[in-house]
Design goal:
Subcellular location: Cytoplasm, Cytoskeleton, Flagellum axoneme
Structural class: mainly alpha
Protein name: Dynein regulatory complex protein 9
Helix content: over 70%
Number of strands: 0
Keywords: Cell projection, Cilium, Coiled coil, Cytoplasm, Cytoskeleton, Flagellum
Number of helices: 6
Pfam families: IQ (PF00612)
Shape: elongated
GO biological process, one term: cilium organization
Radius of gyration: 72 Å
Length: about 350
């Protein structure tokens, strides 16, 4: 059987849908478990991979003859037990798959179970080959026993029991794994159909996207052509404006150059006038300096004359006071004349009153 290759993570929507389907299946299996007329045996351990010896083997030194006495499962279960065991096995597998899909959005446990079934089937094939070899050996031993009649009864019984157990183990393994392999094949086929449908949907989406992109590309080409025409017309208009502005700039440059030349001539004339004014200013400054120095000299002379006049006045006043006090010169007998003048003034005032 071809094994399923690992796939990418499921999308959240796919994981939710598959989880819902698995939950419904588990509910149906739980309901079916109550309908089947057989109870679940706790010795049914279908989890994990077991070798043929672990699944069908017996203790190395059995002390009992029958499998029931040894605590082993019967080699050929009843139909109800077979259905209950298959239902229990499918339920456990689906529970692990549901847990993987819900938590990790994968179904690695299903892949592991398929690998386990494949290894188990290979082991059972080896067991069948070994059983046939044992049967051949048993036949040889039987012939040897018949020919020699020297083998003991215990060896014969042990060989026969081993051959019977091998046959029963082979039949049981074939019977159990036929249902598991069929279920795995159907699951793989359904998964492949799901992947094919998913790829078909993705292909449809890609084709639709390509169609949309082609429409957008055509629209962009039309828009690009219109923009190119507009830009060419605008560039032509801008070139005309550039020529006009260049001509205007040249004319303006010539006019400004003429104005600059005229201004330079005016500046030169004004510089000459300023030089003349500077020379005139220097002459005026020299004249002003001479005037200021002359004025300062005259002021100093006037101040000197004022001081001399003041000193002369002081001297004259003091000399006149000295002459008055001493009655010298023209001030001789001044007191007598003053007394006489006072008397005459009183006399005149009295007469005026009368």
């Amino acid at each position: 059987m071809e094994l399923i290759s690992p796939v990418d993570l499921l999308t959240p929507l796919e994981a939710a849908a598959i989880s819902r389907v698995l939950e419904e299946c588990l509910e149906q299996l739980l309901t079916v478990g109550f309908v089947i007329p057989a109870s679940v045996d706790p010795r049914w351990d279908e989890t994990g991979f077991k070798t043929v010896d672990e699944a069908y083997g017996v203790p190395d030194e059995p002390r009992a003859i029958f499998r029931e006495d040894m605590g082993l499962l019967p080699l050929v279960p009843t139909a109800a037990e077979k259905m209950q065991r298959d239902r229990n096995y499918v339920r456990r597998v689906l529970e692990r798959v549901l847990r993987d899909v819900r938590d990790d959005r994968k179904f690695d446990s299903l892949q592991e179970e398929l690998d386990s079934i494949a290894r188990k089937r290979e082991g059972e094939r080896d067991l069948e080959t070994s059983a046939r070899a044992w049967l051949n050996r048993a036949g040889q031993l039987r012939g040897t026993l018949e020919s020699s009649k020297t083998a003991s009864a215990e060896d014969t019984e042990s060989t026969i029991r081993l051959a019977q157990e091998s046959d029963a183990a082979v039949d049981r393994a074939i019977f159990l794994n036929s249902g598991k392999l069929g279920y795995a094949e159907r699951w793989a086929r359904a998964r492949l159909e799901q992947q094919a449908l998913k790829l078909q949907l993705r292909k449809t989406d890609v084709l639709n996207g390509l169609s949309d992109r082609s429409k957008e590309c055509n629209a962009e080409q039309i828009m690009s052509a219109e923009i190119s025409a507009y830009l060419e017309a605008d560039i032509e208009e801008k070139e005309k404006q550039i020529v006009a502005w260049t001509t205007r700039y040249s004319e303006e440059l010539v006019r400004r150059q003429q104005e600059i030349d005229e201004l330079k001539e005016k500046v030169d004339k004004q510089k000459l006038e300023m030089d003349e004014m500077r020379s005139l200013r220097d002459e005026q400054r020299e004249l002003i300096d001479e005037y200021i120095s002359e004025e300062r000299r005259l002021r100093e002379e006037a101040e000197h004359r004022g001081k001399l006049h003041k000193a002369a006045t002081v001297i004259q006043s003091r000399w006149r006071g000295h002459m008055v006090r001493r009655e010298l010169g023209k001030y001789k007998n001044l007191r007598k004349r003053l007394k006489r003048r006072k008397k005459l003034s009183k006399k005149f005032r009295l007469e005026a009153k009368r």
